[in-house]
Amino acid sequence: MPVHTLKIGYAAGQKQHKRTNSTTSKSSSQNSLDTANLPEPFPSPRILPLGKQHLPNVPPARYSNMVLNQAKVKSVLSGDSLVLASIDNPDRERILSLAYCTSPHLKKEGDEQFAFESRDALRKMVVGKHIQFQVLYTIPNTKREYGVVFLNDGRRLPEEMVKEGWIKLREDAGRKEDTEEALQQLDKLRLLEATARSEDLGLWQTSGGRINVQHDMGDAQSFLENWKGKALDGLVERVLSGDRMLVRLIVSPTEHIQVMTLVAGIRAPTTERVNPSNGQTQPAEEYGNEARRFVEERLLQRNVKVDVLGLSPQNQLVASVRHPRGSIAKFLLEAGLARCTDFHSTLLGPEMPVLREAEKVAQAAKRGVFKDHVAKVAASGGNLEAQVTRIFSADVIYVRNRAGVEKRINLSSIRGPRPSEASEAPFRDEAKEFLRKKLIGKHVRMSIDGSRPATGEYDAKEVATITLNDKNVGLLLVQEGWCSVIRHRRDDTDRAPNYDELLAAQETAKEEKKGMWSGKPAKAKQYTDASESLQKAKIQVATLQRQRKIPAIVDFVKGGSRFVVLIPRENLKLNFVLGGIRAPKSARGPNDKAEPFGQEAHDLATKRLTQRDVEIDVHNIDKVGGFIGALYVNKESFAKILVEEGFATVHAYSAEQSGNSAELLAAEKKAKEGRKGLWVDWDPSLDAPEEEEEAPQNGSNGEAPTVREKDYRDVIITNIDENGKMKIQIIGTGTSALETMMTQFKAFHMNSANGAGLPGPPKTGEYVAAKFSADGQWYRARVRSNDRTAKEAEVVYVDYGNSEKQPWSKLRPLSQPQFSPQKLRPQAVDAVLSLLQLPNNKEYLNDAVDYISHVTADKELVANVDFTAPEGTLHVTLYDHNTSQNLTDSLNAQIVEDGHAMVPTKLKGWERGFSDVLKALREKEADAKLKRLGMWEYGDLSED
Fold first, then answer.
1. For a pLDDT cut of 70, what percent of the chain falls above it?
2. Measured at the alpha carbon of residue 72, what is the angle toward residues 66 and 74, in degrees to the nearest 5?
3. Among 111, 338, 458, 625, whose Cα sits 20 to 30 Å from the Cα of 192?
4. CA 782 to chain centre
């Protein structure tokens, strides 16, 4: 028997057989050939229900002239019909029904009993396989072909299907057969059918075979809630395009759902299709038909796993479709027959990067839709380090590179709250402030992702990924809900490398209602301009003068020593001028001329202060409503920085009034010696005469009296011992650091895991942690002495100066580096009152100590450090902000005036330089004696 490759449409036996037929027979054969050459439509012609088929024109089978053909089974329509595709040209198809047999059919209005099982049995046998077949007969009016199929393993159809009971013989089978071969074939089929019937196989089972098929999801949202995140067994019924297919979801053996399914993560070109509204054929996009064929060859009528992910805007199912070798989306992308789509990124989560990599493979090989792909040129600059100098908005910053060049950078793929969107606009200031706190002044890593040249309407733009301490700043903004993710065009390659991660973070932020997704915008902070007028400045100055180290933000730099400052906790905006110095003016406009080093001073202030967190002390106001005072950045006076760099000079009078003249004069001296800035041409000889005039003269006893210097410091008296010696804290960097450390220190010791005691008896001088008996809080302490019998130690609290006895068992080691004295030196400093001698009498001494405690308790005072003893004890004159009106109106003088101390008669060398102060104190002492106050109640004790 000859074997021929299938030629679609040629009737069996009409080629290569020469017979002497009549002209009429030849004409009939030619008409049959022309009709058979027409392609069969998809799906196949409708098959009549079982029991209602009438085939009066069925011709007898002719075994003698049957040609053996080859084809590939594309799909099966039912248990008795196959769709065959040409091996050489897969687009050419024909339908072959199994001869003499019929099966139950699948119908939209309801499947016949065992229809799915019958079709599935045939599907598993033949779909996707190469087979040989013979056409036995063709129905003239429908051109439907009936035949037999030979499988590669030696089995035959319809015999195998009849044997398993999944199809049965037609009622009219063999009525017109007269050949020996046909009759033998029918006898064999009847015998197989009788056997299957007797064994209750397939269709002959007494129960079952009823499947409830739902042809849509019903309530799409309910369906998604039930199945999202789950993997369902499925069967691909039809492929419409590379990314769209009809899938039968097998939710249970008796419950099936047929739904249109979109393949997640990709978009394939459209295929050729007929527009139902006008009947016109719409041509396929390039590679559209190839993409459909690619999927058909691999998935059509194959078992798959369907991962339910979500719904499209049209409520169509979006899912990952997986055959045993993996996701079809990945293979489509690698073949260049689809592109990644961003809209499914959040549904796919960690699977999306796999698809991106598959797309890159196709792009690199220029396959399919990427045949004209041009690889993105790597941006110049690579991974750079830069310092953030200014925050323009939540998604735009300014950075300065190592060469000192400043540029504007847009954060890749994200967008801050838009002013045009009513739901986003109220969050603009909060989002910008969040980014400012994170980045301003910090050194970051910058990777350029793309750029856009300047045009007539837009400035040049660079987009970059910014990382701080290996944390992606753009991702952090999206996670906190302060930025949204830009939906890029398909061809836009200037995007963040972690784009899919950004999309996922945005969805999480929305679910958690963070930032601008909360729906509850905070009331925008409105700052009152305290410098708008002199009258407004006068209203605020008293409140600000009473505060120390006020947290503030430099909003704008006007010059080297003039700024616009925001005070968030007071909701104030004010013009702020540095006191005690004068900085040269910078040019305000292109036509203005700057004073020497004015621009340099302005640039330094801009670099160090713009949008930085600072602290300010307000001393006074000027004539136009500006506030004069000191500004500290990173706990360092910026006036001192300017003077040290030679960009400002000290204004002696205002520096004296501000109390920081010593610091500023020392900085100015350093700038002069370094010939910096304004002092580049400084002549030391010009300052010599003044220094000689101020040189101290020798006093008696060979000791040189010291000229009293102004060294004012803000202090708090933390302890006064029984002898009147004080412990003070100098308010500033140290006390601020102490507050921060004590918060951590207390939290550390509240943790039960850190409750271990000392490993052994403490040593004198050892630093420990001790719980103060008065408030039950832990503090740093130092062991002064040990009582080994009682197993207790006298400890001094090194940051406050007070002491008490504590059992060894209640002490803990101070071995943590973050709390060590090397990290932060003890803040309690020894001090005594200058030029005073307390009474020797115990009773009067106690009165004096009580008095000093009373006038200094819980107050921030100003101390002038008159002298520092070699062992570090400070000799101070104390002033109270509220009561001291001039330099002689001190607490020292008040103590003498009320009779609780006397002026020493034997003066040390440094005390002799205070003749004017001594004179005033002696006058007050004489007045106290006259009034019999305090220690003088029984007369002049000094006479004894």
1. 88
2. 120
3. 111
4. 45
The arithmetic mean of pLDDT across residues 535-561, rounded, is 91
Over residues 452-475, the mean pLDDT reads 80
Q: Is the pLDDT of residue 424 over 60?
A: yes
User: How far apart (Å, rounded) are the C-alpha atoms in residues 388 and 408?
Assistant: 10
The token pair at 654 is 């205002």
Q: In this structure, are residues 720 and 852 in contact, taking their beta carbons and an 8 Å threshold?
A: yes
For residue 691, give the amino acid letter.
E
Which of 280, 81, 249, 51 has the alpha carbon at shortest distance from 166? 81
pLDDT in tens, 699-735: 333 444 445 677 888 899 999 998 899 999 998 878 8
C-alpha 332/C-alpha 852 separation (Å) is: 88
HEC secondary structure over 893-939: HHHHHCCCCECCCCCCCHHHHCHHHHHHHHHHHHHHHHCCCHHHCCC
Residue 217 token pair: 């999801």
Give me the DSSP letters along 7-42. Answer: -TTPPTT-SS------HHHHHHHHHHHHHHTSPPPS
Other Cβ atoms less than 10 A from the Cβ of 57: the count is: 10
DSSP letter, residue 641: H
Tokens for 785, please give them.
């002495």
Residue type, 937: E
Phi, psi of 859 (to 5 degrees): -125, 145
- Helix, strand and coil content of the chain, in percent to the nearest 5, comes to 30, 30, 40
In degrees, rounded to 5, the angle at the alpha carbon of residue 17 between the alpha carbons of residues 15 and 21 is: 110
Q: How confident is the model at residue 32 (pLDDT cuts 50, 70, 90)?
A: very low
Can you tell me the distance from the alpha carbon of 584 to that of 935, in angstroms, rounded to the nearest whole number?
Answer: 56
Predicted confidence (pLDDT) per residue in 326-370, tens digit: 899 999 999 999 998 888 888 888 888 888 889 889 988 989 888
What's the pLDDT tens digit per position in 834-889?
999 998 888 899 999 999 999 998 888 999 998 888 778 899 999 987 777 677 78
Residue 177 near residue 61, CB atoms below 8 Å: yes
